[in-house]
Write a structure and sequence with these properties.
By secondary structure, this protein is α/β, with parallel strands linked by helices. It contains 5 helices and 7 strands, in the order βαβαββααβαββ. 31% of the residues lie in helices and 35% in strands. The chain has a 7-stranded mixed β-sheet with strand order 3-2-1-4-5-7-6, sandwiched between helices. Helix 1 links the parallel strand 1 and strand 2. Helix 3 runs parallel beside helix 5. The longest helix has 13 residues. The two termini are 18 Å apart.
Length: 143
């Protein structure tokens, strides 16, 4: 992905994805539904010299304030049904976001079916190994 795109890390938790992207020069925002993980992400950003490089949002999913400002949305570590719910609550993504990076923890067939019905394609589907854990990671684009 080229540098300078606007990326949102949904459910940032500890903030490591957003931090890595910010340190790479990306314009990044991070959201979380709970204040404690968002504060931890802020602390980690400061710890890794990325404070001031990430736009933090306390919200359930994708903040409406970022409408039209995103090129890519990352949603990792959630179930397929949760990911569907997040995407359904932000229908405006269909017009502006060109790429989703998804790492569903469960209900992958349900999520895949929903994405295709909603006009997305999944040109890249890889399995990443994290210790003993295997995670599917999808790059999803508009049809």
């Amino acid at each position: 992905m080229p540098l300078g795109v606007r990326i949102l890390d949904v459910g940032t938790d500890h903030g490591y994805i957003a931090i890595a992207l910010a340190l790479r020069g990306e314009r990044v925002a991070a959201s979380d539904i709970a204040a404690a993980p968002l504060e931890k992400a802020r602390q980690n950003a400061a710890r890794y010299s990325a404070d001031g490089l990430i736009d933090f949002h306390l919200c359930d999913g994708i903040p409406d304030a970022l409408r039209g400002k995103l090129d890519c949305v990352v949603i990792a570590g959630m179930g397929g049904e949760t990911i569907i719910g997040i995407l359904e609550r932000a229908p405006w993504l269909r017009e502006s976001v060109t790429t989703l990076v998804l790492q569903p923890q469960s209900k992958q067939p349900l999520l895949r079916e929903w994405l295709i019905a909603d006009g997305w394609t999944i040109p890249s589907d890889v399995t990443a190994q994290d210790g003993k854990r295997r995670n599917d990671v999808w790059a999803v684009t508009r049809s």
